[in-house]
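Please go through the protein record below and see whether the fold suits the sequence. Record follows.
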Amino acid sequence: MQVKSGYAELFGTELVKGKPYEFHTGSKVAVFTWHGCTVELRGRTEVSYVAKETPMVVYLNVHAALEQQRVAAEQEGTRGPVTMVVGPGDVGKSTLTRLLLNYAVRMGRRPIFVDLDVGQGNISIPGTIGATLVERPASIEEGFSQQAPLVYHFGHNSPGENLELYNTIVTRLAEVVTERCENNKKASTSGVIINTCGWIKGAGYKVLTHAAQAFEVDVILVLDNERLFIELKRDMPKFVKVVYLPKSGGVVERSSAQRSEARDARIREYFYGKRTPYYPHSFDVKFSDLKIYKVGAPSLPDSCMPLGMRAEDALTRVVPAWPSPALAHRVLAVSFAAAADEDLLHTNLAGFVCVTAVDMERQTLTILSPQPRPLPNTILLLSELQYMDNH
């Protein structure tokens, strides 16, 4: 794809005239122009069209309102707006988040991007939540720069798999983001923009309201769901602005198979890169050199629990996991914790490895890692996510 004349942008990042951009199978992109442009497409596309109506003016107005709040925060020495984007699956939450971040950066701001979507996140691999300081517009082909993001382990692709653990790490991430804002005036006045997952009913709604409380949000942008808008308007404190926004007509609904493929692609990108290729290392490690833990012990009825303990406590307990053939193709998170008695849930992650084979006779794991051989006694957290390394 190439812009031949005029000016255009892609999700808030300006396109350079005459520069070719490459998109791979499965990419869904929307080029927008305020004044008109000519775009040349090469190669086969599943569908390409020019839309007459788009909600871009509405989204730009949202950006302008947030910018006014940032200016006021600068003048008064207070915190900038904390904005949460919510809505059902496949309505364009990630796209709107990226758009608002890009517009903020182009105004000279340094907002913090928080991604609470454990199924289709943009900061790290699936099964995690994270935050990163955004200092420059997202690259057209590779998204936001991934320099040293703050990432916490969840290990499942839906919050419903362990609500207690999910809420615990959301609270922890909120505490650390607040702390960072206190130590970085520029980030503090620029504010925070939070992307969420598409589970909005029942327990999913409680997850959203818990995140809103934990991050002390000022603005909630509800995409394309009137019922959710009405419920949040009713339940949120008066100072929280709840705004209803239309979704873009170009948003495409994905099947569960497509979502699963997207998750695999995110894990593959972590090890092998997207546009710039990476060359991961593969090596054998003795069982005795690793400490593997799993979050969540089997839950027991309250009558069988030790005195003063609740069944929910088991969901956030860290228990040792012994190597077995079941570890093959599992993704493991590498913790920054130096010892197992540190609070593993509240310690952020250094990276990920994938177990490609288990040899019970030799008592070794074959591991795929972006880094050379890890140190002995590395603490690893077990994830439910699997990755078949058939690169």
